[in-house]
Amino acid sequence: MGALLILGGRSDIGGELARRLCHDRPVVLAARGEHGMEELHKELSDAGATAVHTLSFDATEVESHRDVVERAAQLAGESITTAVVAFGILGDQERAEHDEAHAFDIALVDYAAQVSMLTVLADVMRSGHIVAFSSIAGWRARRANYVYGSTKAGLDAFCQGLADRLHGTDLALITARPGFVIGSMTTGMKPAPLSVTPDVVAEAVARAIESGSGSRTLWIPRALQLLAWIMKLVPRPIWRHMPR
C-alpha cells in the first residue's frame, strides 16, 4: 500500500484524512515543530497504522522540501504512495493591504511553497495520489480577501497543469476546491453559504482516492460548482462589495 505523508500534520483536514487513510500502512506527520500531534499520533496507532512518525517541516524553507520528502520515506521504510499537502495560512487581509511583508508571507506559504512541494512530490513519487487544496476563494478574487484568494487562484491553475502533466502515469493529483471550511483556521468568522467542515472535505477526498480514479478536481460540496459559475456573472460594481 505504501506510506502516507501528511504535510501539515496539525491541520484539521490533514488530520481527518490521516484518520481515514492510515489503516495498515505507515504514516508520517510533518509540521513546523513536532509538538501538538501527540493525540493524533495515538489515534492513528489505534486506528491501525503500522507505525506513526513525526517530522519537523517548515514550508517556507523551500530548499529543504526534497530532503523532507526523502526523510519521510526513510522514516516510513516504504515509498510514499499518498501525499497530502495540507499546510497553509489564512493571513490577515487588512494587515496585508499595508504590510508588504505579511502579503509576501501569505503568498509564500499558500502559493510558492505549495508549488515547490508539489513539484518535488510529482518528481519523487512513482505511483499513488497527491492531494492539494484549492478553494472557492480562488475562483474569483473578492475585495474582502483578495490576497489569500489570489494565492488559491494561482495554485489552482498550477494544479490543473500538473494534473495534465501526470495524465497517463501511475500518479494522480486530487485537487480539492472546498467552500468556506469551518475549523481552527476560521475560528470566529461567520460561515459563508455552502460551508463545510474538515471531516466533510476529508471524506470527499478519501472517496476519490479509494475509487482508484486518476487526477480530478473536487468541488466540495458539489453544489458549490453551480454557485461558482453564478459568481462569474455578478457585475464588478456589485462584486467588489461581496463579503469574504
Automatic annotation (TrEMBL):
Pfam family, one: adh_short
Enzyme class: oxidoreductase
Source domain of life: Bacteria
EC code(s) of this entry: 1.-.-.-
Keywords: NADP, Oxidoreductase
Keyword ATP-binding: no
Cross-referenced PROSITE patterns: ADH_SHORT (PS00061)
Coiled coil: none
Single GO molecular function: oxidoreductase activity
Stated family: Belongs to the short-chain dehydrogenases/reductases (SDR) family.
PANTHER family: DEHYDROGENASE_REDUCTASE SDR FAMILY PROTEIN 7-LIKE (PTHR43391:SF14), RETINOL DEHYDROGENASE-RELATED (PTHR43391)
Name the UniProt record assigns to this protein: SDR family oxidoreductase
